[in-house]
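Example 4.3 (complexes with small molecules)
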Amino acid sequence: MALSKVRSLALLGLVGHIVDVEVDISDGLPGYTLLGLPDAALSESRERVRSALVNSGLPWPNKKVTISLSPAWLPKSGSHFDLPIALGLLAAQGVISSEFPESLITMGELGLDGTLRFVRGVLPTLISALNFGATSAIVPTENFQEASAVPGLQIRSFTYLSEVVHFFQSGEVPMQEHVQPADSPTHTLDLTDVVGQIAARRALEISAIGGHHLLLIGPPGTGKTMLAERIPTILPALTAQESLEVSAIHSVAGTLTSRGVLTRIPPFVAPHHTTTTTAMVGGGSHAVKPGAVSLAHAGVLFIDEAPECANGVLDSLRQPLESGSVTISRAVGTVTYPASFLLVLAANPCPCGKFNGRGRACTCSSLQIRNYLKKLSGPLLDRIDIRAFVEAPTRVEMAAAAAGESSEFVKRRVNDAREIAAARFKDERWRINSQIPSSELRARYKAERDGMTLLHNELDSERLSARGFHKVLRVAWSIADAAGHSRPTKNDVEQAIVMREGTFL
Ligand SMILES: Nc1ncnc2c1ncn2[C@@H]1O[C@H](COP(=O)(O)OP(=O)(O)O)[C@@H](O)[C@H]1O
Ligand SMILES: [Mg+2]
Ligand SMILES: [Zn+2]
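Answer. The structure with zinc ion bound is encoded below.
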């Protein structure tokens, strides 16, 4: 038979769509036509597939070859169609049977020598395949770990195209040793490494309890980066659902390591301040790739030296901060990725970096100092719940033998406080304090009476914006949960106001 059909999928965002790869070989001038909106990587499949077949000792048809990827309207990108195309060609030539079950999904890129190579997006593709009724999948060996994370699919993995062909001919699977990744990769960082910084540590803890966005300000070399990098070590472990979502996003981006598959550790993503808006929120001309905001989903997005970011980059954070997702529109279609993260910004206090509130070593004018932080645009700064000043540790602190609390210790308190909040919110649509809707804050989630009076006075005297009012109240709930208060006290509210304003600013 000169016609065959192999099943695969194309991803739009994290959602897979069934794609049938049909191969027709007919008499006529030798040629190769690929139909169905392929991108550049996919169009180049012809050269890869031909070399891979020839170098595996398999036949390449010197005839008129037409390959159609349907549905035609769906944009298709990437190299994972190499394997289904090669199998379709072999079936159409009668090398293997052309009876491919529709419940079998195949994906993989081909090397010129006939090796089967790692591809992106296997996890979300196979999750979608499962929903379409797939029961088994063939993937490259390097994708085995990731593919195995999908429950209910029989996964076969191969290193060479020739092995796949042999499997179709004989049903035999080569012996393979799959290295099992460590169940729970452990953190290498710990809060004990950080000397002093009592106020900043407290800010980190409250931020972790309620998911409140954080700004760390201080001179260079005082431990801002150290502190930020250690936030994932005090955040609660990801839920199974979050873990699957995070792995799927990283799979599409190509940043998923086999150790990272279904990890319970919240991601920590730190784009450099020279990063572009596209790298931050995602994009690209054909395949729309997730950006830093999505890679940080369910974890921490850390932007060091934030005032140095190019115009527009920080502003692009506003949509995901507001909605917890990003929607990117391109000619190929509109794609939405999850992007719900804890934002942590770090900044020097002034252009020279040495300003410490007393201004001894700093050479900047007061105007320069004021303008520096203004680079963090007002609307973005307004979304920051906690500002912490990070001062250089004193000699006494550096010399002190007693280490600071360990991450394990702090995390236990964070978990306890989160459990209190979870119990309070058990019938609500949200789980943590930063997610309490404003209307509910005014109706059912008020502070104690004198705490509310304090807040209203701040509002009256215009020391607090309406958004600030709600943000302070949310932080006050986290402070109350940490202290075991059933409702924020006046003192909890006072602390939240100080945290929002930053003692230094
Ligand atoms: N509080 C601190 N405790 C221990 N080491 C510190 C502290 N602050 C700074 N350091 C040391 O200085 C280095 C630079 O710290 P870093 O976090 O990069 O500072 P920043 O981000 O504020 O410029 C760290 O790798 C660490 O060795
Ligand atoms: Mg730093
Ligand atoms: Zn300065």
